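Sequence, please.
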């Protein structure tokens, strides 16, 4: 091999001012080009999942959550009107009952998303998103889920998870995190920093949750995607979609509910 075949370029890169990911970007000539990147991250940054063990010692770790819980009916509950007046409000049991009055019973096995409109501020308005300087956890202000609402969702509607378009499933001013504990003791997972939850229909969507697999993890970066507005093709025993199936895929509405990590967050 020539000396060029041994040439490697390695660069350490800070992706943003808050140092969530640190990458080692390397590519070598072998003699063809090869790119290979390393990254470091906390479990609870960007759009991510909270595994039950995050707040409950005997709760499932990330790798123990049954995979059938990662594809689920999506429910969107809109609290924008009251959140715009008061960032410290919660999605309450009354909000859930009001949703059911208009849309029917929340499906068993669903993931329930709060829509507050907060994700529009992510990466644009630091103070607006966190309610204060993000390094001062004692003075955060943003809406989330009330603990009794999550208790009802777990006990009466048997959902598998909840999702928020804010940094935490507990509202920003909380210091005791009862919603985290309630969620975790029922082995529900939480999705935090979810993007554009308000783009979801109130009902009828399917959410796909793709967390990184970490053995013993308390959470991890997660891709969240929702789809609605079409019939799923029946692939049955065949290995490929029919032309009709492909056509129906094209007419689907699909949205990514994932934010690129750009804030330091450890809740």
């Amino acid at each position: 091999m020539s000396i060029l075949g041994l040439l490697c370029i390695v660069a350490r890169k800070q992706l943003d001012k808050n140092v969530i990911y640190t990458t080692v970007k390397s590519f070598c000539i072998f003699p063809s080009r090869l790119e290979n990147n390393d990254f470091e991250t906390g479990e609870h940054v960007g759009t991510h999942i909270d595994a039950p063990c995050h707040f409950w010692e005997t709760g499932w770790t990330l790798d123990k959550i049954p995979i059938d819980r990662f594809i689920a009916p999506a429910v969107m509950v809109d609290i924008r009107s009251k959140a715009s007046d008061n960032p410290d409000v919660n999605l309450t049991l009354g909000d859930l009952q009001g949703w059911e009055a208009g849309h029917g019973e929340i499906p068993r096995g669903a993931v329930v998303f709060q829509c507050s409109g907060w994700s529009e501020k992510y990466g644009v308005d630091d103070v607006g998103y966190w309610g204060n300087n993000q390094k001062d956890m004692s003075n955060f202000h943003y809406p989330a889920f009330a603990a009794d609402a999550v208790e009802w969702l777990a006990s009466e509607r048997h959902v598998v998870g909840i999702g928020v378009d804010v940094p935490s499933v507990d509202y920003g001013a909380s210091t005791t995190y009862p919603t985290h504990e309630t969620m975790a003791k029922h082995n529900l997972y939480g999705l935090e920093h979810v993007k554009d939850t308000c783009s979801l229909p109130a009902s009828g969507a399917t959410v796909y949750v793709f967390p990184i697999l970490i053995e013993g993890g308390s959470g991890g970066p997660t891709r969240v995607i929702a789809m609605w507005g079409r019939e799923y093709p029946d692939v049955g025993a065949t290995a490929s979609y029919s032309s009709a199936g492909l056509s129906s895929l094209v007419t689907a509405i699909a949205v990514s509910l994932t934010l690129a990590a750009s804030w330091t967050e450890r809740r």
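The CA atoms of residues 153 and 159 lie 6 Å apart.
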